[in-house]
Design brief:
The chain is α/β, with parallel strands linked by helices and 252 residues long. It has two domains: 142 residues, P-loop containing nucleotide triphosphate hydrolases (Rossmann fold); 87 residues, 3-Layer(aba) Sandwich (Rossmann fold), CATH 3.40.50. It has nine helices and ten strands. The strands form two sheets. Strands 6-7-8-3-9-10 form a six-stranded mixed β-sheet, with helices on both faces. Strand 9 and strand 10 form a beta hairpin. Helix 3 packs parallel to helix 5. The chain is globular.
């Protein structure tokens, strides 16, 4: 199995706080790799080091064999590593379809253009792809609505569509079901399972263990900035170190 993302000896400090310590992690192609841990464990800091929002103090982040350290976030995104954030980052005053076309056009052209919609009539192939993805996300009936008027669950699915339209090699999902009701959570799990069947490589940060054990092929556990365990869901479920660090000794 080929390695899409390889994180080697990554450290990151903020003043006197050692946020990440000697992180080593390999993400296999086509797999869903969950990263779990208590609040403040360093999960989001690790993702930010991967996408160029933070620069590690030491170590390397190699995506498809190329070191990403020092590259700008938009360059990493264009290389094929796409992050979906915990708080939906959408354009609330634009339509749902326009929200998805913006990253599609930026991915193709390599640059964000404020006049991106001026010649939209000639972008039939991109529009067809965007509509197909929105329908796949269960948002077909919302295509012409203002994005800001949708529910939180639908906004999360819209941002997922904005990531998928870029056809990434690696999709990073930061708590994709945060704030959702159980119905919306289960619907999102079903969507992510369909994506998994198509072979897309994913990293998921998630607190909901129902989501984690429904989707993950492998799980890594962060505690106080260090990986204390990695393994299959069954291995992690029964690991006493994980139970102690994550749930105070209770079984997962």
């Amino acid at each position: 199995m080929s390695i899409v993302l390889s994180i080697k000896n990554v450290d990151k400090t903020f003043g006197g706080l050692h946020a990440l310590g000697d992180i080593n992690l390999d993400i296999e192609e086509g797999k869903t790799h969950a990263i779990i841990g208590p609040n403040g464990a360093g999960k989001s800091t690790l993702l930010n080091c991967c996408i160029g929002r933070l620069i590690p103090d030491s170590g390397t982040v190699e995506f498809e064999g190329k070191n990403m350290i020092g590259m700008q976030p938009h360059e990493i995104n264009h290389a094929g590593m796409v992050r979906v954030f915990q708080t939906p980052e959408i354009f609330p005053d634009l339509s749902v379809l326009q929200n998805v076309l913006i990253p599609a056009l930026a991915k193709r052209d390599g640059v964000f253009k404020f006049n991106a919609f001026r010649n939209l009539a000639s972008e039939s192939a991109l529009e067809a792809d965007a509509v197909h993805i929105l329908k796949d996300m269960g948002l077909g009936e919302h295509i012409n609505k203002h994005a800001g008027s949708m529910s939180r669950g639908d906004k999360r699915r819209l941002e997922l569509a904005m990531g998928l339209v870029q056809h990434p090699r690696l999709l990073l999902l930061d708590e994709p079901t945060a704030g959702m009701a159980r119905h919306d959570t289960n619907r999102t799990i079903d969507l992510l399972k369909r994506i998994k069947e198509r072979g897309m490589t994913k990293i998921i940060i998630e607190h909901d263990m129902h989501v984690v054990f429904s989707l993950a092929d492998k799980i890594s556990v962060l505690a106080q900035g260090r990986i204390i365990a990695s393994g299959t869901p069954d291995e992690i479920r029964g690991n006493p170190k994980v139970q102690e660090a994550y749930l105070g000794g209770a079984e997962l």
